[in-house]
Amino acid sequence: MELFLQQIVSGVATGGIYACMALAVVMIYQAIHHLNFAQGEMATFSTFIAWQLLTWGLPYAIVIPLAILISFVGGFMLERIVFKPIQNAPVLSHVVVFIALFVIFNSASGFIWNFSIKPMPSPFGEGPLYADSLMSKHQAGMIAVTLLVLALLWAFFRFTRVGLAMRAAAANPESARLVGVKVGFMTALGWGMASAIGAVAGILIAPVVFLEPNMMLAILLYGFAGAVLGGLTSPGGAVIGGFLVGIIENLSGTYIPVVGGELKLPIALFLIVVVLVFKPTGLFGRRVVQRV
Which residues cross the membrane (predicted)? Predict the structure, then answer.
């Protein structure tokens, strides 16, 4: 029973990272209706920036807000410079650009900071949360940060004018434009927020898996699985999907002998296939009806 509870707790903690990535994926998908294959590499690059700031002696209290701000500005400018000119281009053009960004950010991380594995300290400290606790301080911190990010985003989209404008621009760009919403600016704002959320996910996962240019590749796949499982049209569903993927991954790796530690990643891919076959909109996604 203790092993089961430990795997649940560990699954919830890692699921918090997948939830952050799934949330970032969904925010960009709602903005441009495409999946950003470079999301993980962008998060890795932001994490390297945070690591560099730490090595220069800055405390986490300054490093985290600064890395998030840099990531937000970078994501905003990326949409303005790269994707705005090709917004009406064919889907394949967007896919090629995403693949190019994947390679560029991955190579840039390796070129600037090299490909050696670097340890990164936890912002929450080491050791168990309290004596004989099944949860470590870092795991508790990951869960708390994920829930905080979700709560802040929910309040932003629910109670602020900018948040409502972003929702309108994502749901119906033409109608939103007619009532004065700057759809292009809202799209860029969504890119910036997604990049900032990805930076949070990278900073949280780096102390667990160690920092290197390919750190987020598997994490992004788990994030895709969480987004598809929860629903690409539901940010809250994507978060729940991320937590579910983390729990399923841990339990299957522990209790299914065939899976073990080597086949955890195919579990995420299997979830993507199953959900797309039986419920393409995800568990909490809304069905889109078009009048013809």
Answer: 12-32, 58-79, 91-113, 139-157, 183-209, 265-285
